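User: Fold this; tokens only.

Assistant: Input:
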Amino acid sequence: MQTPSDRHAYPSHWEADVVLRDGGTARIRPITAEDADRLVSFYEQVSDESKYYRFFAPYPRLSAKDVHRFTHHDQVDRVGLAATVGGEFIATVRFDRIDERGMSASAPADEAEVAFLVQDAHQGRGVASTLLEHIAAVARERGIRRFAAEVLPANTKMIKVFTDAGYQQKRSFEDGVVRLEFDLEPTDRSLAVQRAREQRAEARSVQRLLTPKSVAVIGVGRTPGGVGRSVLRNLREAGFTGRLYAVNSAFDFEAGEGTEVDGVPAYRSVRDIGETVELAVVTVPAERVPQAVDECGERGVLGLVVISAGYAESGPEGRERQRELVRQARSYGTRILGPNAFGVINTSPDVRLNASLAPHPPERGRIGLFTQSGAIGIALLSGLHRRGAGLSTFVSAGNRADVSGNDVLQYWYEDPDTDVALMYLESIGNPRKFTRLARRAATAKPLVVVQGAKHSGIAPTGHAVQATRLPYATVSALLRQAGVIRVDTVTEMVDAGLLLAGQPLPSGPRVAILGNSESLGLLTYDACVADGLRPLPPVDLTMGATPADFRVALAGALSDDACDAVIVTAIPWVGEDGATGSPEGEELAAALRAAAAGCPAKPVAVVHVELGGLAEALAAASRTRPDAPAPVSSAPGGERCAHPSPSSQLRSSRGDPNRPAERLPTAAADEGAPAAEAPAAAAETAGKPPAALEPGPSPAQSHRIPAYPAAERAVRALAEAVKYAQWRREAKEPGKVHEYEDIDESGTARRIDELLATQDDPRGATLAQDDARDLLGRYGIDVRDARPAPDPDAAVAAARALGYPVALKTTAPHLRHRADLGGVRLDLADEEQLRRAYAELTRAFGKPAELRPVVQAMAPRGVDTVVRAVIDPAAGAVLSFGLAGAASELLGDTGHRLVPVTERDAGSLVRSIRTAPLLFGWRGSAPVDTPALEELLQRVSRLVDDHPEVVAVSLEPVVVAQRGLSVLGASVRLAPPPARGDLGPRALPGY
């Protein structure tokens, strides 16, 4: 007999790996007829109370009929999903389509009854809420728009699952049963709930790796040396606060080998350890890793750091080995860092974890560091150590087959020990999600990112990356829109991180410059102008300035309301006896810290040249933590900060602070010097959620003054801080997506369906000009009529219909939008001029059939611009804007924003390009109607956001006049909408 499940293909796309509330994982998949034994075993482990809540009566065991009904589904009207760990069920959910009377039904009925059962041992892990997300997505796919559930009033946990989901719902009470009905259409609240749960779950999965109470190192050699023995040594020497175990299957205790390695209990297998193991560091050869993972999974190990190499980085065979590794670990509910990882470090005194290959862990600090490359990780750890910077956590993900930068961002978002996040990324596996997480994280703390392999277009070997058609410059612009501090080199990342970790955010771009070298002050001034800052005239303290003079000058600058930040420049100075030395450097460091500690909170950076004494003094100071905060009302020695500005007492260097900014090349520099740390007042924001924190470092990090060996590096770091601070201020009021009353959303949707139905190519097609004009017109985007002119007479007829003056232009691909090649004739006032122009075009470029000429009424003069939108499979919908012309294309002068754009986004997009002054009255020209341009950008954004089938729009040229604008050319491409993984249920990337 053919069962219903035999008549429908198995929906493998419903399978998904998910992270649960406690950080563990589970696999969700459809229930099939082969699951009968699993279902019976699962039900036997459910308590009588849970069974009563499910069936509203004592139900000790399932009958054969029950088992058949719960394992046979048609995958349309009756669907069952199970959450599994280790191949066994831990929870089930099912829906049955019903009609308005509550009876079994088939499509087109759009309501279904839903019911859950969760094993008691797994209740409280968020299994039911995760299953609800997935069963709701399945129901929507099958045309079901509403769920109904009947729950006993005492079953408060299940009632909470439904009420907390964020859907629009209705509740009633009848015959002792609570009936809940809710629509399945995602709402802003349901999406917010889903993402909040995602954040907690993924953060907890990283926390498992960083805060274990016990660690087993698998692959510890019997003799000194080797990776396993090195990791074990690093754990011991870091002072790990938990329990350590050494594991090697080759240990032969019967032959007299000791039961300890370097004082650590030794075992042949993780299975033999009689206590809980929370983290395992796997260092055995790749071919032995599967056995180690099996043993860890059976032992209930919570997390794995796989340092072993030989995976996707080694070729196709290794790539398949890596996929199997991830599948194997997830089957046990375990997450993996790696393979080919460098390890993890947590400097918290409660953990002191160095489960890495770094022999010297960094000192404790407030910077979080994530890298994908072990080599870059080593270099960054070394560089930060030399400059006196401490870390909170370090994660090197290697091939990032499972745990990725997105997961670590989720952890850092709420980590109270991390104030600044630094990330070196060789690839971004899920750009859409990364941008969303980065935007949220950046509202709470600075995020500095370097992206490697940015120009090769090739993902590093071993990294699974979604394909993207966006160039690197576009991705960079989108990251900046999300608040990411995007820098080009790891040196710039460290420079910016030191400033952000130790100094408050600047309130503006005005920079005071003071020091004992006029020339160095001028170099700093020029660097400020080049980076878009507004420097004040440099203050020259002269070569004879003492540390006390520096202290007075810095205190005065910090108290001056005319500046937002201070850069101190210092070169070796000459004392009364003509000698220089380290004592003066130490005194200068103390003087600068004293002035900064006792004055208003403004960022300070030091540029030093050949002042080794100063660098060493700052390094020493950076490693000294204050026992108590110093008062901020006065500087040491009793001097108030409100003394006169030094510029009124000392000679100023030449320079005009209003000099226009120019982009100038900057010179490369060597590694910088360490930072300084001084007492500070206690923070007033303790206990607030991350998003509510005000800009500025934590108390323990305040007034750590960063030092740089070159003016350009200090200025560039400060400029990034200024831009980030401005973004933070604007992010508090992001604007809104404008609603336009003349938009016909439903009519556009119907028209798109009609147009797609006529297309033979499943990949979609570019619309005809009339269809494109019609579609855009439904969103208030008027495109000027362009009439074909296959011959001179047709051109004349078109001109009479449109009215003179007209333009004649070719639309051939090689001449389109290329007025510089002569394919356009403008301001043709009568028939004679039109016929002459037609003859010139055909004589110069070829036959009309090749040129495809059109006639168009003249538009008011203005600035030619280009507006485009495209849906990228990885990043999502992107809106772009720039001026028309080869020069802008050659220079890459185009701005980009993620869709949907707000009114603030539209305004900033217009102003983001370097040629924007042409729109605002450059060199005496009349300003154009930028509000009309911003409105056009918002309408295009709404179109592609409301209708994902619109996969590309190009408006070129858009002539923006003093009043209004004219869209002279338009192209629209339709295709079946790409999958939106960010709107679906939570799931880990598939393997």
